[in-house]
Hints:
The structure is a homodimer. The first copy, chain A, is mainly α. Chain A has two domains: 1-97, Winged helix-like DNA-binding domain superfamily/Winged helix DNA-binding domain (Arc Repressor Mutant, subunit A); 100-244, Four Helix Bundle (Hemerythrin (Met), subunit A) (Up-down Bundle), CATH 1.20.120. The first copy, chain A, is 65% helix and 4% strand. Chain A has helices spanning 33-46, 58-64, 69-82, 100-123, 126-148, 152-169, 173-192, 202-216, 219-244; strands spanning 55-56, 85-88, 92-95. A three-stranded antiparallel β-sheet of chain A has the order 1-3-2. In chain A, helix 1 crosses helix 3, helix 5 (126-148) runs antiparallel to helix 6 and helix 5 (126-148) packs antiparallel against helix 8. The first copy, chain A, is globular, with a radius of gyration of 19 Å. The two termini of chain A are 14 Å apart.
Amino acid sequence: MSAGIEGWTAVAQQTELRLEKTERTPEPVRPNLVDLAYDAIKRAILENTYPPGYQAGEMEVARQLSMSRTPVHEAMTRLQEEGLVRILPKRGILVLGLSPADVADIYDVIIALEGAAAERLARMPGPERARAAEVLEVCTGDMDAALRQGDRPAWAKADRAFHDALSHACGNARLDRIVGTVADQLHRARMFTLSLRPLPTASAIDHAAIIAAVRAGDPEAASLAARTHRLKARDQLLPLLQELRLSNI
Amino acid sequence: MSAGIEGWTAVAQQTELRLEKTERTPEPVRPNLVDLAYDAIKRAILENTYPPGYQAGEMEVARQLSMSRTPVHEAMTRLQEEGLVRILPKRGILVLGLSPADVADIYDVIIALEGAAAERLARMPGPERARAAEVLEVCTGDMDAALRQGDRPAWAKADRAFHDALSHACGNARLDRIVGTVADQLHRARMFTLSLRPLPTASAIDHAAIIAAVRAGDPEAASLAARTHRLKARDQLLPLLQELRLSNI
DNA sequence: TAATTCATTCTTGCATGCAAGTTGAAATTT
DNA sequence: AAATTTCAACTTGCATGCAAGAATGAATTA
């Protein structure tokens, strides 16, 4: 499980958190404060504004978001369920880090589910497959473009878009949701090592293989390609994390 | 996604909900009311005390649990994330049903993840594999015993225990947690059709195959056996649900 | 009679109040 | 001086208060 760093000093003391509207929120017709708090805090964690080990009281976060404690409290509960923070009974929240073991676990889940998504996608009727393949190809194109310019953040964003599209297009909303949640957690680790890895030129080939299998309507091949792709990514990322000996991100 | 039944009459009007301690709760050193409410409501839904279409205000539920609205409110948010209820903006909560499509989606997720769990299990070092295999065998034994006595509920319970043990023993806490959540949702559908299905004598054989593959340390075979088992269950359950034309459970 | 408007009541979303529990340090003892 | 106890400030968990929004039904109009 997630291992937090107990004895850290709080770093992001007086940060101002923004309340922005994220896309993934279901249907925020009348946006409620809980969702706003949830999104803001989650973003702060994933973008390392709240680094692992950061400890804060609800009051403090509530002040930063200019709302009362109640919505923050609820948001924290949610975040704890996702494994991003731990609520220390009467001592506030602790932002958790990801150990290499955590990352490995997350990859297991993603590999299994994304494989299933690719398989499903390849089983869809032709027109839908073609449409999905086109979306995926656009993402891959964006990745190539970013790669040629050496723009790593843009590459990461396009890569993320590819994988989001993959699980989204498969038509299984639950699967999509779970993959999204788990991929969010991976995001931190990937961003952290983004500048340390060689430019991932191989990814484009992997993605092409997935797209081809989807186009061909070959579920087995699609699943295999998707899983292989993530496996390779995992085997590239994990040694880096262990080498860094940060042990936690 | 889950389709609720809009125009139902509330059935379980004055039910008294019990606050019992469930085993799955992480570490309830000092049990907080939110978890209590969450468990109680979830159990009520899964056991059909709150049937699909049941609509209730927070106040009402809070009274049944003899607590204030706040913990109930938080619990409802969690349950909505799991897809068990929908919060109707100012009209209370609606217990959702599972359409056959929902069940199919859930099976996709479980098949993928349980396959991964079995694979992981088969990759573990010998002693751990043996220990896990023994646990699994005990569950299978319980199933056989229940089957011989025609005790369907006992069989279902033992079957559940087998699958819980499988994902639990694989050592990936996140995977275990996700599978647990999703399997919970399946529980309703399975219980609903429990008396309508023929006695599932084939399950024992499937389980034996999984156990054998784990014992042999054959990840591929283990994964395949686990997935095949769930696939068969799905193909048996889904037609029944569609035939029942309840369309929602 | 049917449809529309209006008002009343109920319910939720969030803020705040209160009590229980925890932390950290001062004060006391050994 | 070290260890233990006591105490005060702070924080959370939950209850409650309040205001905004929605539903229901009455009253009015066509």
